[in-house]
């Protein structure tokens, strides 16, 4: 019993430590400049939405949010399609050298994005895609992690289901869409959250490939706020809250499936 109480206290303390920065960000975004100069408090003395009005009224932040949403959704959808189809091939369609190809594919996960920035930029420039949405999107179309995650989930689906469907006249496309995909739902939900989060928080590649303010993504716009609103912490924190809320909503919606997917469960 004492051990259980101690573990509970540790978990609660850990949760408080993790949640406090987000709470402080929200409180700061609702505090006026006068309130910020007063004694710090978790309850704003004069709460106001003025920082959000300033953010969306005097900066192109609405356009920036739409840019990030569009790119994140497109990246997520493309990664789901490419990862699911590649994972099915590695899991269900044997061919010579499959293990070697899969190992090489996974080895690309070890290469940091900083190493690829220059060759990627040269390639995008040759294609005329610098300062375009497509230039931001193309490097994230495929995901080695997504293929690995979905392949592991598909390997846990019994092969007897494939054999039964084959006896009924089903081909690979029907087995893939009607049998395998529904049974790896938790893994798909996990990849959805990870893909959206990766695109939403991406900073280095958009910084290199984009030039105009109209095409900026949210991380770039947040970095720009530091120069424009250096001392207006409420406006900067309002931008941070706007960047956090979509990810928080997506995770809370898919939390159950993410836990199942990470645990490696592919069958309900």
TrEMBL record:
Q: Which Gene3D superfamilies does the record match to this protein? A: MetI-like
**Which compartments is it annotated to reside in?**
Cell membrane
Which residue range or ranges hold the ABC transmembrane type-1 domain? 65-254
Where would you say this protein principally sits, based on its record? membrane
Return the GO cellular component terms, semicolon-separated.
Answer: plasma membrane
This protein's UniProt keywords: Cell membrane, Membrane, Transmembrane, Transmembrane helix, Transport
Bilayer topology: Multi-pass membrane protein
Q: Which Pfam families match?
A: BPD_transp_1
Stretches of the chain forming a coiled coil according to its record = none
Q: Does the keyword rRNA-binding apply?
A: no
Which BP terms does GO give this entry?
transmembrane transport
Q: Which residue ranges traverse the bilayer?
A: 7-27, 69-90, 102-121, 133-150, 179-200, 235-254
Q: Which family does it belong to?
A: Belongs to the binding-protein-dependent transport system permease family.
Provide the protein name.
Answer: Carbohydrate ABC transporter permease
Instruction: Read off the lineage from the record.
Output: Bacteria, Bacillati, Actinomycetota, Actinomycetes, Micrococcales
């Amino acid at each position: 019993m004492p051990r259980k109480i101690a573990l509970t206290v540790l978990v609660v303390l850990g949760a408080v430590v993790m949640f406090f920065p987000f709470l402080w960000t929200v409180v700061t975004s609702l505090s006026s400049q006068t309130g910020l100069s007063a004694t710090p408090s978790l309850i704003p003395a004069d709460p106001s939405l003025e920082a959000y009005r300033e953010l969306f009224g005097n900066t192109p932040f609405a356009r920036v949010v739409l840019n990030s949403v569009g790119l994140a959704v497109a990246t997520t959808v493309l990664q789901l399609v490419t990862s699911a189809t590649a994972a099915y091939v590695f899991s269900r369609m044997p061919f010579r050298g499959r293990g070697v190809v899969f190992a090489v594919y996974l080895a690309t996960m070890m290469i940091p994005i900083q190493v690829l920035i220059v060759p990627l930029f040269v390639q995008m420039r040759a294609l005329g895609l610098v300062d375009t949405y497509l230039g931001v999107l193309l490097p994230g179309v495929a995901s080695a992690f997504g293929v690995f995650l979905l392949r592991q989930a598909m390997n846990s689906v019994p092969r007897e289901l494939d054999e039964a469907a084959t006896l009924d006249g089903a081909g690979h496309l029907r087995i893939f869409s009607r049998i395998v995909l529904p049974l790896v739902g938790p893994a798909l939900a996990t990849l959805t959250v990870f893909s959206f989060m990766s695109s939403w928080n991406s900073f280095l590649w958009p910084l290199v490939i984009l030039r105009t303010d109209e095409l900026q993504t949210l991380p770039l716009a947040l970095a720009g706020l530091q120069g424009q609103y250096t001392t207006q912490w409420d406006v900067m924190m309002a931008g941070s809250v706007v960047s956090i809320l979509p990810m928080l909503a997506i995770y809370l919606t898919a939390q159950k499936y993410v836990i199942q997917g990470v645990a490696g469960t592919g069958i309900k």
